[in-house]
Design goal:
The protein has 2 domains: 183 residues, BirA Bifunctional Protein, domain 2, CATH 3.30.930.10; 42 residues, SH3 type barrels (Roll), CATH 2.30.30. The chain is 25% helix and 34% strand. It contains 3 helices and 12 strands. Bound molecules: biotin (BTN). Biotin binds next to helix 1, strand 3, strand 6 and strand 7.
């Protein structure tokens, strides 16, 4: 199976993820990309809204990867690596993106992208937002853009680089499995042993980052032993 992408462009849309779901349910093929200049109802993880004015990249990709449904969550790591590769390619060489579990992409500690992976049986919709020109004013965390870091990109060139990196990542995932994806993810993430805080189910847990297990769950070393987290957010200790 090869990963060829076909882009369908919209000026304004509610949410590219919603449109991708609508078309997928009507039979849209693997690789259809819904790209909008702006969203009026952009969605983030945990039902948060996603700031979506013109100037940034908003796209959702219909994926039918022919993998067991239980492995679909691995795609969010494939996507995070593709976004990190793209951001690295667009920023000046002295700046390096970092990945924060499960799939936030940060530059100098500020969020530059968000990934929303939704799946049902054999379909996954991979929604990606990348701040090229406009940073949301979020009270909850710092945000940034490609332009604010001295990077140069049009939204369309960022999209095309990202789709090429995603095709490469999907190839790696199919060929070498999640272990290879996990190794690539760890290259961009915090080092093993770094102190991190996991906010899961309303409780904050602090410990040392101990890597990812074979399903992508975060491993946290605490005084009580290794904890395994499958959902939540990580905050770096400031
Ligand atoms: C997050 O909470 O970090 C994930 C944000 C995902 C935003 C993207 S923008 C394109 C796609 N359409 C949406 O409605 N959401 C995703």
């Amino acid at each position: 199976m090869t990963d060829k992408f076909t882009v369908r462009h919209y000026e304004t849309i509610g949410s590219t993820n919603d449109e991708a779901w609508r078309l997928a349910r009507e039979g849209a093929p693997h690789g259809l990309v819904i790209h909008a200049d702006e969203q009026t109802a952009g969605r983030g993880r945990f039902s948060r809204s996603w700031f979506s004015p013109p100037g940034n990249l908003y796209m959702s990709i219909v994926l039918r990867p022919d993998m067991p449904p239980a492995r679909m969550s691995e795609l969010s790591f494939v996507a995070a690596i593709a976004v990190a590769d793209t951001v690295a390619a667009l920023l000046p060489k002295r700046l390096r993106p970092h990945l924060k579990w499960p799939n936030d992409v940060l530059v100098e500690g500020a969020k530059i992208s968000g990934i929303l992976l939704e799946s049902d049986a054999d379909i996954a919709i991979l929604g990606i937002g990348l701040n090229v020109l406009e940073a949301p004013k979020s009270g909850a965390y710092q945000t940034t853009t490609i332009a604010a870091n001295g990077g140069l990109a049009s939204v369309d060139s960022a999209r095309d680089i990202l789709l090429a990196r995603l095709a490469a990542g999907l190839g790696l995932w199919r060929r070498d499995g999640f272990a290879a994806v996990r190794d690539a993810w760890l290259v961009w993430s915090y080092p093993i042993g770094e102190t991190i805080r996991v906010n899961a189910s309303g409780a904050a847990r602090e410990g040392k980052f101990a890597g990812l297990d074979e399903t992508g769950a975060l491993l946290l070393e605490t005084e009580a032993g290794i904890e395994r987290h499958v959902t939540g957010d990580v905050a770096l200790r400031g």
